[in-house]
Structures are given as C-alpha cells and as structure tokens.
Amino acid sequence: MDAEEKEKETEKRKEDAKHIPTSTQSPSSYKKGKKRRRLPAALLIAAIMAVYIIVKFYPMWEKKMNAVPVDRDLQASITEHQAEMQEEQLETTTQDSTDTAEKFLELINGASTDEIIDEDMAARLQQDEEAPFVNALKDAKVAKEIQPYRGLSISYVLLTNEAENVNAILEIAGGNVLKIYAEGWNETTEDETKYNELLAKMDE
Questions:
Q1: What are all long-range contacts of 79-84, with beta carbons under 8 Å and residues at least 24 apart?
Q2: Helix and strand tally (H, E) in the chain?
Q3: Residue 166's CB: how many other CB atoms inside 10 A?
C-alpha cells in the first residue's frame, strides 16, 4: 500500500470515529447525578418530620395560647374559701388538742383511763406521783394552745397552776400527749431550751 492509500485509510477511520457515540456519562458526572437523586429523599424525610412535629405539638400549643384567664372574682372567691377552710382546720385542731389536755389532767387526777400517753410517760408519772411537780399539775388549768408549725398537725398546750407558779407544756398530736416540757421534768438541755422557746411563744 502506497502513501496515498494509507492517507485515505487514515482519513476514513477518522470519519468513522465521528459517528461512534461517546460514553453517556463520565465518572464525575455520575457522582453528581447520584447526589442530585439523594437530595429529594432528604427533603421528603424532613417534610415528614415537620408534619409529625406539627401534628404532635400544635394542639398543646394551641390550647396554651387559647387558655381562658381565670376570672378575678372567681380567683378571689377560691382564695377566700381556702382561707376559711384553713381557719376551720386550725379551730378543729385547737379544740381537739384542748380536749386532749383536759383528758390528761383527768388522767393525772385518776379520773380517766384514756390511753393518751405512752407507756414510758405513764410509768414516770406513776413513779413521781407524789413529786411536787406532779402534785402541782393536778390543780393546773388549760391556759393556752398554739400551733407554731404551719402544715404540721402538732399543738402545744400550756397548763398553769398559778398558786404553785408551775407551768407545763404538752406536745399533742393525733389526740395523744407526745411529750411534756416543764421545769423539774425536762431531762435534757434540748428539752429545757425547747420549753423556754415554747413558753416565749405562748406570750406572743
């Protein structure tokens, strides 16, 4: 084959090559296309989450926003009613504690068998039955009742024998005498301090 024929053959190959289709996509364009296909899926997930949040929390938000404010007169009436109930409760506790103190005095004088004291207190009263303090209590009277601790159903009742200048304070709860605070009866420094504090409150 001479040079002229080789040149023609080369030209023919070049001409044929023009009609051969090129590759549909390059590797880089494929990656870009893949990323574009992922984007709608992410948007769909975000939309589903947004709808879920709206459906779940919107009723609560709407209820809070549309809450009707309490009428001032109604609120005042509720507050007044609560105050009256607290006052009635205090009066009831006072009466119950006073009744318990009276029963204690009857017990000291042997006129009652009500179990309003524990065994230890009963044993000590019996042991000191002829002691000056116990004898003075037999002629004592209920002088005052206080409830110094808000929210606690504990009362303190002052018993006084003016003739003997003897005071005693009963700690009462649930219809029982839990403790006695008095000079000549207190066993510890803490009891003596508590007695003086309660006595000061009685004078307020």
A1: none
A2: 6, 4
A3: 21
Q: Which residue has the tokens 């504090």?
A: 197
Distance CA 189, CA 194 (A): 9
Distance of CA 12 to the CA centre of its chain: 95
pTM over 0.90: no
DSSP bridge pairs for 167: 160
Per-residue pLDDT of the chain (204 residues; tens, 9 = 90+): 555 555 666 666 656 555 555 444 444 444 444 445 555 666 667 777 776 676 666 566 555 555 556 667 667 766 766 666 666 667 778 889 999 999 999 999 988 767 899 999 999 998 988 889 999 999 999 999 999 887 788 999 999 999 999 999 999 998 999 999 999 899 999 999 999 999 999 988
Residues 6+ apart with CB under 8 A from 174: 153
